[in-house]
Request: fold
Amino acid sequence: QVHLVESGGGLVQAGGSLKLSCAVSGRYAMGWFRQAPGKEREFVAAFDWAGDRTYYADSVKGRFTISSDNAKNTVYLQMNSLKPQDTAVYYCAAGLGTNAQRYAYWGQGTRVTISS
Reply:
């Protein structure tokens, strides 16, 4: 069983930064997704643990960075230049690629709210 626990969400003003963390019970390819109120869950960023490749949604490219600390089995999402449209519940998940259906394990989510 894979366990994932997110942390780091909160309320910040537009233009600010947040760093989300996801503690994982092992080493897997990982991704971050988000779901805004009334919208479907969408891909944000992914990390191919074995290949050290990263992938980003166009809406966050250049502002968000996914990274990992192998010693801590933790994956991070550094979010800069935040916009009100980034407001959502952010989920980390173990899987591969940009399609949420390819991710079998999910954290409980952490809420991010960006005020204008």
Notes: The two ends are 40 Å apart (CA to CA). The chain has a mean pLDDT of 94. The chain has no helices and eleven strands.
